[in-house]
Design a protein that fits this description.
4-stranded antiparallel beta sheet; binds (3R)-3-hydroxy-3-methyl-5-(phosphonooxy)pentanoic acid
């Protein structure tokens, strides 16, 4: 029997992946780029036990047994078993016949537009790769589980190059800069709704490809935006980085609204956060915080460390909560809650 446990963090795209050119191989119509969160924040933990004594594969997600026959899980298992024993030729045949029991848990809401499929499939593939001794690039295997999962294979800033090959061999993740490169960067994840989303990203992006005219314009814009984004990260140029991040999120949600039937992932609270971030940037006289929204209403804000405390104090003013410990991983949380509201926010209604 072999047992391995691994963890994998979430990644949040600043250039979004939206739309496939090949549904089966999960080949995107545009390249994308994301930041991978710290290992200790939002993450998936997966244990894989492989044994010649198990009679079938099984999987449990957050304590409930799920259907292992799901097409995506099967694709991942097939790919892993094909490459089993890469590291040790002798064990190849025996290993690939072992059945697996998989136990996986997320420490944050699943399927709520918080990139749980990214950390989930990345962790599944990485753990299986350890058990089955698979070597080489495994981002292409993570990709066939869930596209965005391929980017969580690396830390720091990661591009997923769309590639040209029909078999998808060049559609893989590439680290643009490691986790030490931009030390001052922080990410605020604001959970405004942790319910499962109504339109899955799979269904949503398929409808967009079939019905949206705007998506055709977006695919023309993304290559240039990817180049600018990579440069802004290399130069630690926050102004350009922040503007591109917000622009790409806005464009992605415009494509969703242009889809038939229209998809609205953002809600009223999301729009209020957009307004607060825009006002914050006006108050600072430069881009100091950048929002981005995935396929859900929860804002994610990329900002430099010096802006965490002032922006959080404004956000907690407008969205107060009785729940203790709702601001997590912020060292000076007492100061955050005590700060005064700056000018420029007087006319926003406080939500209680
Ligand atoms: O990997 P999927 O199928 O969950 O798609 C993710 C799509 C977005 O989160 C909206 C964008 C992205 O690039 O992560």
């Amino acid at each position: 029997m072999i047992a391995v446990t691994c963890t994998a963090p979430v990644n949040i795209a600043v250039i979004k992946y939206w739309g496939k050119r090949d549904e089966k191989l999960i080949l995107p119509i545009n390249s994308s780029l994301s930041g991978t969160l710290n290992q200790n924040d939002m993450k998936t933990t997966t244990t894989v036990v492989a044994s010649p004594d198990f009679d079938r594969d099984r999987i449990w997600l957050n304590g409930r047994e799920e259907d292992i026959q799901s097409e995506r899980i099967q694709r991942v298992l097939d790919e892993i078993r094909k490459r089993a024993g890469d590291r040790k030729e002798a064990s190849k045949e025996k290993l690939s016949t072992y059945k697996v029991h998989i136990v996986t848990v997320n420490n944050f809401p699943t399927a709520a537009g918080l990139a749980s499929s990214a950390s989930g499939y990345c962790c599944l593939v990485y753990t299986l790769a350890q058990v089955f001794q698979v070597s080489g690039d495994i981002s292409t295997i993570a990709r066939v589980g869930s596209g965005s999962a391929c980017r969580s294979i690396y830390g720091g800033w990661v591009a997923w190059d769309m590639g040209n090959e029909i078999d998808g061999s060049d559609s893989r993740a590439r680290q643009v800069a490691d986790e030490h490169h931009w030390k001052e960067m922080r990410v605020l994840v604001l959970v405004v709704n942790d319910k499962k989303k109504e339109t899955s990203s799979t269904a949503g992006m398929q409808n967009s490809v079939e019905t949206s005219k705007l998506i055709q314009e977006r695919v023309k814009i993304v290559p240039g935006r990817m180049a600018q984004m990579e440069k802004s990260i290399a130069d630690r140029d926050y102004e350009t980085f922040g503007q591109l991040t917000m622009r790409d999120s806005d464009d992605f949600h415009a494509v969703c609204a242009d889809t038939q039937p229209p998809i609205f992932y953002m809600n009223e609270t999301s729009k209020r956060v957009v307004d607060i971030v825009k006002r914050y940037n006006r108050t600072c006289g430069k881009t100091s915080a950048a929002y981005t929204f995935d396929a859900g209403p929860n804002p994610v804000i990329y900002l430099l460390e010096e802006h965490v405390s002032p922006l959080l104090s404004i956000l907690t003013h407008f969205f107060p909560s009785d729940e203790k410990n709702y601001v997590r991983n912020v060292p000076d949380v007492e100061n955050v809650l005590k700060r005064e509201l700056p000018k420029g926010f007087e006319d926003i209604e406080k939500r209680v």
